[in-house]
Amino acid sequence: xxxxxxxxxxxxxxILIGWFIAKMYAKNQYKEYELEAKAKASIIKQEAERLLDExxxxxxxxxxxxxxxxxxxxSKQEDIERSLRNINEKEQRLDTLLKQNRxxxxxxxxxxxxxxxMTKDEARxxxxxxxxxxxxxxxxxxxxxKITIAKENVQKEANYLLAQxxxxxxxxxxxxxxxxxxxxxxxxxxxxxxxxxxxxxKALEQLLGVDIIVDDTPGVILVSNFNLYRRAIxxxxxxxxxxxxxxxxxxxxxxxxxxxxxxxxxxxxxGEKVVIDLGLYxxxxxxxxxxxxxxYRASYGQNALLHSLEVARLxxxxxxxxxxxxxxxxxxxLLHDIGKALTQDFDGNHIDLGAEVCRKYNExxxxxxxxxxxxxxxxxxxxxxAAVCTADVLSAARPGARREVLESFTKRVKxxxxxxxxxxxxxxxxxxxxxxxxxxxxxASKVSDxxxxxxxxxIAKEIEEKLQFPGEIKVNAIRExxxxxxxx
Length: 488
Prior knowledge:
Helices cover 68% and strands 7% of the residues.
C-alpha cells in the first residue's frame, strides 16, 4: 500500500517535473519566435513606410501636374471666351450694318417709287439694274486698261524671249538644188556611161528615174531630178560603176539593187544619229527611219531634216525661257514635220500623216498638238507647242531659208508623175529634163503596141487639162518585152 502511494507520488512528481520542464522549454521557444516576429515586423514596417513615402511623392507630383493642367485649361477657356466675345461683337456690328443698309435701301426704294410712280418691286429692279450697269462700266474700263497694259508687256516679253532664244542658236544652212555633178576620172568615161547606141545611159535613166546630162564640160556629168532620195541613189550608183569600170545594163541593175538596200539601212542610221545627238531616246524605230528620210526631202529649197533640227533647238531655247519642258519641246520640234517623209509615198498632207504616225507609235500628246498647231489646224495647248510654232516660223521666214519658185516647180513635176502613174498599165514615171519631159515605162503584159499611142495621147491630154506650164512637155512612153532563158 505504502509502495503504491510512493509510486503514485513519484508518478505525480514526475508529471509535475515534466510539465515544469516543458513549460520552461516552451517559454524559451516563445521568446525566440517573438524576437524573430519583431525583426520581421520591423522590416515590414520599414518597407511600408518606404512605399507610403513614394505614394505621397507621387500624389504630390500628380497634384502639381493637375494644377498645371487646370491652369492651362483655364487659360484656353479664357482665350475661347475672349474669341467668342469678339465673334459676338462682330456679329452684332454686322447685324447693325445690315439693318442700316436695309433701311437705306428701303429709303432709296421708297424715294424712287414715289418719284417714278413705281411699285417697290419695280423700283428695286430698276435700282439693281442701275448699279449693275455702273459696275459693268467700271469693269469694262478696268479690263480695257489691263488688256492694253498686258499687250504692251507681252510684246516686250515676247521680243525679249525671242531675242534670248535666237542668240543661243546658230544654225547651219544649205539650200537644196535640183542637180548633182559627178566627177569623172577622164572624158573617156563619158563614152562608157553612154554605152553602145546609148544603151547604158538609157538603162541608167530608166532604172534610176533621173535625167543624166552629158555635155561638153570636161570631166563632169550632171544628174538632175527633183526627188533628193532618187537623185542621191543615182549619184551613188554612177560613182560605184565608175570605180568598178564595168558598165553595162546587167551590172547597172545589180549595183542599183545593192545601193537601194544600203540606203534603206542608211536611213535608220541617219535618224538614229540625230536622236542620239539630241538625247531623245527612246523613240520607235519607224520614226527614227522617217527622220533619216527627211534628209532627202526639201520644202521650198530648205532641207527638211535641217529645218526640223533648227526648229527643235529653237523650241528648246524658247521653252526654257518660258519655264516649259525643254526636252519635250525639243522632241516636238524634231517631229513636227515628220509627215513630210511620207507625202511622196502616201496621199494626204504632211500634218495629218505626221499626226497619224506619231499617234500610232504612242508619242506624247504635246508632240501631236505641235504637229497640228504649227500650221494652225489646232490651237497650241501648252508652252511647248507654242514654242514649236514660233520656232517653225523663225526657221522658215529668215532670209534665204526658202525659195518659192523651187517649191512651185517641185510641186508641178510631182503632179506630172502622179498623172502618168494614175493610168492602168503604167509601171514607172519619171519627170526629167527640168520637167519638160516625162518618161513613162509601160507594162507590156497590160498594154499592147497598138494601145500604146492611145494611152500616150490620154496622158498628154490630161496633163494639158490639169497643169499649167510654159512651152511644152514631151510624153515619152517606153514599152519593151524581156525574155530570159538559161542554157543547161
